[in-house]
Amino acid sequence: MRAFEIIGGLLALAGLWALPQWGELSPYVLHIATLSAIYAIPAIGLNLMLGYGGLVSLGHAGFVGIGGYAAGLLMVDAGWTFWAALPAAMLASGAAGALVGALCLRLRTHFFMIVTLAFGLILHAVMNNWEELTRGPVGLAGIPRPEAIALFGAEIAFRRLPDFYRLTMAAAMAALAVQALIVRSDFGRMLAAIRQDEVLASARGVPVMAMKVAVFAIGSAIAGAGGAFKVSFLRVAAPASFDMLESINIVLIVIVGGAGHLLGPVLGAGLFVAVPEALRVASAWRLVVFGLVLVLLMRFAPQGLAGLAADAVRRLRGKGALRAPGHA
Amino acid sequence: MLLAVAEQVLNGLMLGSIYVFVALGMMLIYGVMHVLNFAHGALFMLGGYCAHLVFTQAIGNYALAILAAIVMLIAVGAVIERTVFAPLRDNLRNQVIASLGLVLFIENLVVVLWGPNALQFRIETTQAVVSLGVLRFRVQHLLIIGVCALCVTALFLFLQRTRFGTAIRAVAQNPRAALVVGIDVVRVHRVTFAISMALAAIGGALLGPLFLLFPQMGDLPLVKGLAGILLGGMGSIGGAVVGGLLIGVIEAVSTLVIATDYRDAVTFTAIVLVLLLRPQGLFGVRTREEA
Amino acid sequence: MSDAAAISLAVAGVSKSFGGVRALADVSFALPGPGLYGLIGPNGAGKTTLFDVIAGRQIADAGRVLLDGRPVQGLRPHELAAVGLARTFQECRIFPEWTCLENLLFSLRPKGLAGALGRIVTRRATAAAEAIRDARRLLALATLDAYADMPASVLSFGQRRLLEIVAALMGRPRLLLLDEPAAGINPGLLGVLADLIRMLHAERGGLFLIVEHNMEFIMGLARHIVVMHQGAVLEEGPPAAIQASARVIEAYLG
Questions:
Q1: B136 in a domain, yes or no?
Q2: Fewer CB atoms near the end CB (10 Å): N or C, chain B?
Q3: How many angstroms away from the CA of A303 is the closest CA of chain C?
């Protein structure tokens, strides 16, 4: 990584960290920023599956929901702390992802999409109808914010929005770091090989099925973490937060941001949550616009915003069109 | 008990007929263009709204309102086919994602135009009841089943007996060969899309008066239609018809055995089981493994 | 992995049917050591099916495939890669997004899932300088050195075929299966391709089994040829003997 990228990254981080201190920012802005971070986390999970592994899952919100409900139930019914419930939530959605993945991943393309859609719907139906456990359509209420911790002698109270905001921001950064480590590792290379040509990857020694199950489980576990933060933020876990539309929204975030780009999910989540709020448009209009943007992107720039930015940077650096010497 | 079963079977056939409208349309587009159009449910919903609009604002005649909805939806479909699906041909992933974008676009545009609340679509046949021995049916139920049977028969005859129908089947079987023998593949795609839109419009316009019109009313029929296609073995018209009806009946009869709340989950589970155990569908023949 | 200098491949009594059609009927032959071997036969002779069985893409109904005397039938493609088998594809497969160099280096990466998961935190997927030197040398042999750092998608079909072969060899396989390497190649360049395969074999050793449709190409390349016909082995021997065999001529003409 180049020096200016590191410096730019650090500056951005410092800015995000200091956001609560910026003058008279309304809590509303912090609310939006927190929600963006919370959307970015499951989007990073889906980016690993869809962007890097080529697995188009249309039921991702279901796995966010498993994490959200697991965390919520452990905190509300079992009295666990958020800090204990978070890893448990990740484990639960990761295990569910591994199970569903092992069942479904031998299906290809359309069939895989349909079966993931069906699993998302099943999970939603269970959240809606298993009233003894999930409290049904009204949702599981009374989920607490994370317990305060002491750091360098100072107490950080996550009940307060500025500290909760910083926590979700840190969690999103951690998810980004995990994503970057995975993408640049041997695991990430094998994933990229599978995305380009599954048959060839297998002939070169990549255990394709096991890899797909693994990335499905990892992506689902990250989604589960997002779910835990989401229910702790909203103070309630309700089925409507994890329905088919939500699954489509996460796909939208990943694609608009730029599937297969490290920062794509963050860009996408920020746009998805913040821009419509800034423009103060009604929620139906914003989805009309996002729907249209998604269609237009597929048509004219399927690489997404991060992809467009990367192309622009490449052009600026003069590495523009790659041309072979002689004929191509 | 027997009476209850008979009632639910008929109920299921009615629901199933609605699913057949969705399943046939999706199946045609999938078979001929190899596109999985997740916006089909939203278009189905749009058909209901169009019929309602014409019925309440213009003519007040149900049959003419359905016809108008068909025309309107064919027009919408033509725009979508030309601007979205045709340019993205051969890119499965991007087509599916674009169709998800269309779902958001259409459903929320309807919210913007008509508001988020459900609309009533009052016509006489929803109230009228006929008796058949001890069984009593709403006329609208019988109308749905009848129109479905009519459409399916017409579609079969069109595909089997007409030149253009043969061309459609040829493209579905082997697009390259169809091109070689001089079939206008682009035109086949457009007509197929139009037929599929007409079926969606009829389905939406028939279902609307029975319950209510609301922006998400197409979501479940979409999934049920998909389930029907899968049961029938993705790729055959007859399979889509039988599969759609079967889903309706299974769903309706299942309410006798398990809680109504889980009715939809039964279908979703059926999708998963069929895909995992018999990906070729209940009636399909397993084709040779992909190389 | 043992030495490429000592490698044998044997097929013993392999049968395979599709539906009611018998594609392979009790096929047996042995290729006793390193060298260039050919597998030929008229259309429908079963050579592609046999190739798929050896490469782990199809599972035989009966019979065994022995690599160095050890049964390997039923292993999946990635497990076969781990015991020293590499292959190329008739339709020619490469990783189009990666540079030519990366295409080669990927063959060297360890592929175990558990290990890869463990290394996510500790190590990036970078290659040793020595491996890079080796890869560049192979690319130079394949006259692709000018393209080493370009995405493989810019290559012509013929260049992709060359890249595919050297990428398969990069992992130092003991057994290399080549699926119709001459298919789709400009006839004027077939001599160059044959020279390259010969040169790469001299350089890397091991057992090359070449399934081929193009008679002239394979006759000039292989030292021993197995001829299949109607799902069974019809004849075996050096090119000269095969060309003189009345049975082979009859099978091709009939």
A1: yes
A2: N
A3: 14
H or E element that contains C227 = strand C224-229
Structural domain includes residue C38: yes
Contacts of C156 in chain A (CB under 8 A): 327-328
Q: A–C: how many Cβ contacts below 8 A?
A: 99
Rounded to the nearest 5 degrees, what angle is found at the Cα of C219, between the Cα atoms of C213 and C223? 120
Report yes or no on C2 lying in a domain.
no
Provide the 8-state DSSP code for C36.
E
Using CB atoms, pick whichever of C110, C125, C147 lies closest to residue A188.
Answer: C125
| CA–CA separation, B188 and B195 (whole Å) | 11
Can you tell me the distance from the alpha carbon of A213 to that of A193, in angstroms, rounded to the nearest whole number?
A: 15
Supply the CATH number for residue C46's domain: 3.40.50.300
Q: Per-residue pLDDT for B172 more than 60?
A: yes
Segment A235-248 mean pLDDT? 90
Residue C105 lies in a domain: yes
As to burial, measured by CB atoms within 10 angstroms (0-12 exposed, 13-18 middle, 19+ buried), residue A312 is exposed
Higher per-residue confidence, B92 vs A229: A229
Q: Where are the domains of chain A?
A: 27-241
**B92 is a domain residue:** yes
Average pLDDT of the segment spanning C206-231: 91
Tell me if B9 is assigned to some domain: yes
Q: Report chain C residues whose CB lies below 8 A from the CB of A186.
A: 109-111, 115-116, 119, 123, 125
A134-146: pLDDT as tens digits: 888 888 988 988 8
Could you tell me the residue range of the domain that residue B127 belongs to? 2-277
The CA distance from A212 to A199, in Å, is 13
How many structural domains compose chain C?
1
Cβ C4 vs Cβ C47: under 8 Å: no
Considering the domain boundaries, does residue C55 fall inside one? yes
DSSP state of B82: I
In chain B, residues with a C-beta closer than 8 Å to the C-beta of A54 are 93
Beta bridge partners of C11: C29, C65
Interface probe for B, chosen from A119, A298, A299, A303 (most Cβ of B below 10 Å), is A298
Helix then strand count (H, E) for chain A reads: 14, 4
Q: Structurally, how many domains does chain B consist of?
A: 1
SS3 call for C236:
strand
Domain of residue B102, CATH code: 1.10.3470
User: How far away is chain A from the Cα of C169, in angstroms, using its nearest Cα?
Assistant: 11
Q: Tell me: the pLDDT tens digits for A193-221?
A: 999 999 999 999 999 999 999 999 999 99
- State the CB neighbour count (10 A cutoff) for residue A15: 10
Nearest CA distance, A322 vs chain C (angstrom): 7
The DSSP code for B85 is I
Q: Is any Cβ of chain A less than 8 angstroms from the Cβ of B79?
A: no
Domain-embedded: residue B291: no
Token pair of A166, please? 């910083």
* Residue C191, number of CB atoms within 10 A of its CB: 11
> Looking at A10-14, C204-208, C227-231, which range is the least confident one?
A10-14
Chain B residues with beta carbon closer than 8 angstroms to that of A113: 36, 96
* HSE-up of residue B96 (Cα within 13 Å, Cβ side): 20
A1 pLDDT exceeds 70?
Answer: no
Cα separation, C228 vs A169, in Å, equals: 65
- Whether residue C86 contacts residue C167, with contact meaning beta carbons closer than 8 Å, is answered with no
Q: Least CB-CB distance to A196: which of C96, C121, C155?
A: C96
> Which domain covers residue C126, as residue numbers?
9-253
Residue % of chain B over a pLDDT of 90: 32
CB-CB neighbors (< 8 A) of A107 in chain B: 275-276, 279
Whether the CB of B273 is below 8 Å from some CB of chain A: the reply is: no
Whether the ipTM is more than 0.95: the answer is no
Q: What share of chain A is helix, strand, coil (3-state, %, to 5)?
A: 75, 5, 20
pTM: 0.88
